[in-house]
Amino acid sequence: MYRTHTCGELRPENIGTKVTLSGWVQTIRDKGTLVWVDIRDRYGITQVVAESDTAEDVMAILKSLGREFVIQVTGTVSERSASNPNIPTGEIEIKVEAVKVLNASLTPPFTIEDQTDGGEELRAQYRYLDLRRKPVLDKLRLRNKVSLETRKYLDSQDFLDVETPVLIKSTPEGARDFVVPSRMNGGQFYALPQSPQTFKQLLMVSGFDRYYQIVKCFRDEDLRADRQPEFTQIDCEMAFVEQEDILNTFEGLIQHLFKAVLNVDLDEKFPRMTYAEAMKRYGSDKPDIRFGMEFVDLSSVAKGNGFAIFDDSEAVLAINAEQCAVYTRKQLDELTDWVRRPQIGCKGLIYLRYTEDGTFKSSVDKFYSSEDLAKWADAANAKPGDLILVLSGDVEKTRKQLNELRLHMGNELGLRNPKVFKPLWVLDFPLLEWDEESKRFHAMHHPFTSPKPEDEHLLNTDPGKVRANAYDLAMNGVELGGGSIRIHDRGVQSRMFDLLGFTKEEAEAQFGFLMSAFEYGAPPHGGLAFGLDRLVATMGGSESIRDYIAFPKNNSGRDVMIDAPSPLSDDQLKELSIKLI
Asked: What pTM was computed for the model?
């Protein structure tokens, strides 16, 4: 056998035991007649030592080793003369008796250490080496544990794990599809699923009652730190349920995961907030509620003083950064430059310092008296020492900008502790969004989301005011997942397609199979999907999901390790009936 134990397994109780270990060379320390080698596998590191009485051929092999050589070592477990409390095997070492090189290694392009010298692109190119580093390995261990505990919990709640197809039909709603040409049906294409949405609804029609799947999904959309073109969902659906049933079930899942994986107790009941309230208070449908700085509307006290920037704006909104009046002019200028970045898009930033001596200093002093500025401070519930930061403009745009500034200040002030977890249900989203460019409504979630029963009558008179029977779970400023109670009536679904601009023929061509299924006794049903990658990254205290995926893509959607995507040969294109333009 190649090993009797792993490199993280041996302890003082094994002293005197003859063992064989196999793994990678982490480090070598050669002092002439004394050689230490640290050997590593995914379980840990063990120190191997050769002394003056070690056989010459064994000593020669040890001295010839390089980093990342794969070796097999046989020897006796001994007490380590100088213990290392930083590793579990730090009280023992192996007195080497035999060593064999199983495979040599080139010098790695970066050090395989917790704190590596490799940049992101280089590590992505050699991802198979990056995965040897303990911080990356630990992230994938966390993902494995979350997946395992998810299955345990859902199985205990009578959910069935059912696989759904990966080659499906392209549909026009949502993000862009990835498409797959069919060789056997020339000129026709499959699509990769953005989610198993219609299939899980069909499973409810089939009587499966409770379905789940940890499933790959695909969206051809612009990427960022928390997006990948292929990602994993914890996808769930339940029949004969209302919204409250689903919220309770999946609060239970998240509570179970945090307790079982992190030993963290979350609130017994997660707080809830409507979409309208979340946008008004935080400018985000996934607010970070670990800290305050809620929005304050200063329109009534800031307009009408001849300051055109405010007077011509739809809204004047502010946040109160407590005890930040000590910010210097340089710091305030840096904040102004930050909000002017193209990603934020502000023309400027107005501030009001409420000094410790009770006076007011503002960038717009010439337009507002101390009495005027005191009204700002009262509206923002400010105290001496606080700093009020103000943006103005179109309501929707200004809310989004102020949300970014609020999160930035939260980071600057250390208020976004990654080890603190604050979940929040956001409810009652709009069912539809009006798009000025196409002059039609789009589904805010997807076209199978049901309206709130009390708003259903508005579908024919004022569809823009209809609220969706939908819900998202946010945590620490991240949308962990969301879902809705689905439409299960053919008539309501047809009306929804009408509002979204589908002709009868288009609706039938795209979704006729689902509409037909609704005519054979579709039960009331609803569901939810969590982004596994985002959930695990949040639990790990990271903003980027990439390190929690074994082989991620970069911001351009490329896998730089295998150099994908790549061109097809002319013969392949011809076989698929495809011509490139």
From this structure: 0.92
